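Repro case for the chain-ordering regression, as requested:
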Amino acid sequence: EIVLTQSPGTLSLSPGERATLSCRVSQSVGSSSLAWYQQSPGQAPRLLIYGASSRATGIPDRFSGSGSGTDFTLTISRLEPEDFAVYHCQHYGSSPPMYTFGQGTKLEIK
Amino acid sequence: QVQLQESGPGLVKPSDTLSLTCAVSGYSISSGNWWGWIRQPPGEGLEWIGYIYNSGSTYYNPSLKSRVTMSIDTTKNQFSLKLNSVTAVDTAVYYCARKESGRNLFDYWGLGTLVTVSS
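-- result from build under test --
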């Protein structure tokens, strides 16, 4: 069973700062199987990054993803007020299909 | 644009069956794609429940498989979830979502509906 551990649980930063969020996977996985979502309060999750590093349609270039193997990172280069939300990483496993999410990182205004 | 809307009772008694429906607009579910359910207990992370194809084929999370049934109605452009023998740990916001064609992620989501299991 694959487990995704996100850190930190809560990150307090100010607008304009850089945010670095981590997603650690319990075993090595392919980069194509890793995605990130943003969830604003009262909203459904929104796809940000797929394949560990590709931005989804309409996602600003201040969002970037990186990593491989067991360690993946979501970076927001300059925080905008609308970026303060909860971020989830997601892994896809095949045969049979299985989707696993991390517990989320809450990005809050300092 | 694709829109999904969950509906169903907000309160379910322990040991009863939770039943939710997801109505899809702006896209025909007969066109393809897998249609899924994901839940989020209060203060916790997301949990994939499973998904269904327009043919009726399904895949479920092994941890819930014994209690889950999904169905699809292409004539009404909607799909449904049933979770039986619920307990308090099944209290969560339940989302329906569309799996993107060709990639293993969810590109459109409903706003979610809170289901509380309590007597």
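Ordering looks correct now. The interface with chain B takes residues 33, 35, 37, 43-47, 50-51, 56, 88, 90, 92, 94, 96-104 of chain A (CB under 8 Å).
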